[in-house]
Amino acid sequence: MLRSLVGSEMCIRDRYQRRVRGGISVTMKLVHSELGKDTGGSVTMVPEHGEDLWIVYNLVREGDRVKCTTVRKVSRETASGSTESDRIKLTLEVEMVGEADFDPVSYTLRVKGSNKTETPHVRMNSSHTLELCIGRKFTLTKPEWDQIDMSMVERASNPQANADMAAVVMAEGLANICLVTESMTVVRHKVQSTIPKKHTSAAFGRDKAVDKFFEQVLQGMLQHIDLDVVKVVVVASPGSVSYTHLTLPTKRIV
User: What is the distance between the alpha carbons of residues 31 and 67, in angstroms, rounded to a whole number?
Assistant: First the structure.
């Protein structure tokens, strides 16, 4: 299947802008939800990881409606009688036909269907393909949501509710607090602090800086790890980080 060049350009631009903004993506963002078991409803979400699009791929089915921004090539006739083409960015909702197409390399999900949005640029019920990608908001509407689909949305938008393992990966002055789910490792919090080197003029403040750093790590663990759900917390660091300090946060949590 040939990829829509216009849609792919938009996805690449969205991914580039997301990288430039920086920051740590922690989960698929749930913007709005109107769900009820065994009834119709919709969710509006923003994929933050490639794995999020794989989850969406397993959610969408024929007959569902998907809405997001897209680009449509529109032809118009000039006063001289010639034809010109313009690319117009607009928001369309399509009723899905057939199966979605997931590309794990570019992290794009293509949904083909009939247009259900009234617009002068696209005829009603005409065929159009939408491309979902990282950072692009979309709305999924189903005539019926079953428990499995609702659970998939919950797991994707709130990994803290189902991650039964956490990991704290540390170096001197740096710690990443992660949750490990069935499909991904999610960085929930980052602690970064300047610690004076040994045998320098500022070494007298080293012990105080180390204690402050591990106190920040502890607070981050308490805030971002749900101990009612998580069964195992793995703490790892190179040998240069004191074992005493490594065990301090877990002892205080217990």
Answer: 14
In three-state secondary structure terms, 94 is: strand
Q: Which of 70, 164, 150, 54 is nearest to 113 (CA)?
A: 70
Are 20 and 13 in contact by the 8 Å Cβ rule? The answer is no
CB 240, CB 172: distance < 8 Å: yes
User: Within a 10 A sphere around the Cβ of 184, how many other Cβ atoms?
Assistant: 18
pLDDT at 136: 94
pLDDT digit string (tens) for 88-115?
Answer: 899 999 999 999 999 888 889 999 999 9
Q: What are the C-alpha distances in Å from 191 to residues 14, 224, 229?
A: 28, 12, 23
Query: Can you spell out the DSSP letters for the chain?
Result: ----HHHHHHHHHHHHHHHHH-----S-EEEEEE--BTS-EEEEEE--SHHHHHHHHHH--TT-EEEEEEEEEEEEE-TTS-EEEEEEEEEEEEEE-S--EEETTTTEEEEEEEE-S-BTTB-TT-EEEEEEETT--EEEEES-B-HHHHHHHHHHH-GGGT--EEEEEEETTEEEEEEE-SS-EEEEEEEE---PPTTSTTGGGHHHHHHHHHHHHHHHHHHH--TTT--EEEEE--TTS-HHHHHHHHHHH-
Q: Is 13 helix (H, G, I), strand (E, B) or coil?
A: helix
pTM value > 0.85:
no
Ramachandran class of 38: left when φ > 0, alpha when ψ lies in -120 to 50, beta otherwise: left
